[in-house]
Amino acid sequence: MTHVQPASDEPRAGSKTVLEQAEIGRALTRITHEIIERTRGAQEVVLLGIPTRGVPLAARLAAGLEQVEAHPVPHGSLDITMYRDDLRLRPARTLGRTQVPADGIDGKIVVLVDDVLYSGRTVRAALDALNDLGRPRAVQLAVLVDRGHRELPIRPDYVGKNLPTSQHEFVRVLLTEVDGQDAVLLGVTGGAGGPR
Amino acid sequence: MNRHLISAADLSRDDALLVLDTADELARISDRPIKKLPTLRGRTVVNLFFEDSTRTRISFEAAAKRLSADVINFSAKGSSVAKGESLKDTALTLEAMGADAVVIRHNASGAPHRLADWVRGSVINAGDGAHEHPTQALLDAFTIRRRFGRSSNGPGPGGQAGRGGTLDGLRVTIVGDILHSRVARSNVILLHTLGAEVLLVAPPTLLPVAVDTWPCSIDYDLDAALPKSDVVMMLRIQLERMNAAFFPSVREYSRRYGLDSARMAQLPERAIVMHPGPMNRGVEIAAGVADSPRSTVVEQVANGVSVRMAVLYLLLGGAEADQ
Q1: Range A22-165: architecture per CATH
Q2: Domain B8-133+302-316, architecture per CATH
Q3: pLDDT in tens, B164-193
Q4: Half-sphere exposure (CA, 13 Å, Cβ side) for B66?
Q5: Nearest CA of chain B to the CA of A161: how many Å?
Q6: Smallest Cα distance from B111 to chain A, Å
Q7: Does A97 touch chain B (CB under 8 A)?
Q8: What confidence tens digit (pLDDT) does each residue in A145-165 have?
Q9: How large is the ipTM?
Q10: Contact between chains at B22 and A94 (C-beta distance less than 8 A)
């Protein structure tokens, strides 16, 4: 049995950049302000990033919120591996880290943060995982890129960029914390390359 | 990883580290109010115990239940094994019931190996005769790694599970009845795989044949070994297996190879004392040592659940590699 690592982190050849570093920064700033507006000052907000790239995004949003509102906003990570619906389709995956802020999530407004929203299955798994951690007052969803093709009735509350794609394309988000640079790439999958 | 876990030698260094890293993440579940994950829903784990066991069976049962698997407990007493059913027929019965994993403890060395040919599911060795007990070795390695601060504490980049370290350079001394001990054999193999230096200390009568081919060194003098040990693992004197004169008397054994407070004082400052349980207090380990902060006996039991969850997840959680 081999254990599959997360899909290759290298930017693939033949892809084009659809968001540059500055645009990613502006999108996150806008999301920050939308969160403040929607939650009336982000007092009760807890940001939970979904590994891998949701986690640094949640940290960046938390830093942005703190800068504007001048109070710290707790953030953490929520690993969904054990809740996936496709576990049996692939060899066992390596687990990520779940790190919930010390005050927990009971009664809070949890904002789930991920890089790309696609089928919605990751978010479904995240909602199940949250259920085992506590009872938030509300759950919202922030994504950097919404590429469409939902397979479940799930919609995002905050979107960095709506990116109409075909299912033969791939979207890859690169972040400095993980990949050494900030960019969103769009390209065509060669053959049977699976979606994330 | 292989489909089965029968020997500690089935695990490469990467496999062993993967189990320990996964166990690190799963250990965090036990701090939560809901200590359950849906991962193995609909899978069946059979605990097939031909030999008495408390902690191993309960530990496997708790691990499987925390992953939402269905658990069937089978003990030889009060079953058709008592009527003379063979291992193979028992295996075929389990196969017909659709077991996805069989956790087996048997008094005959090699029983899990035979079983692996007869069932389609994964076979996990929970102790076979004087041969091996790989999950005990994994939980011991896990406990050592935690106590010496080498597990994955902080998250890696992007909240991926951090990668814990190996046991490179740690000196582990295993003391006592090596001859009858499946724990010792599995530990020697696994700890060597993970980079620790293993020293066996026992009376010559309690060392197995061909122990010189094992990847470890051997000594007969406990007092000389203690100051050079980071970890001391005391093995149980298996009084039920003492059918020959291995040593003159229990008292004499205890005086030469038992760990009492005076001997514990010879250990380096950070050293820990381990015991796989059940302990014979006053024989191989003094009560004062067993209850001291250096002793990891209770921790080992708690860690056992996390490590067995990791093993069950890695063997059953994904698709089979050959599909």
Answers
A1: 3-Layer(aba) Sandwich (3.40)
A2: 3-Layer(aba) Sandwich (3.40)
A3: 889 999 999 999 999 999 999 999 999 999
A4: 27
A5: 21
A6: 23
A7: yes
A8: 999 999 999 999 999 999 999
A9: 0.85
A10: yes
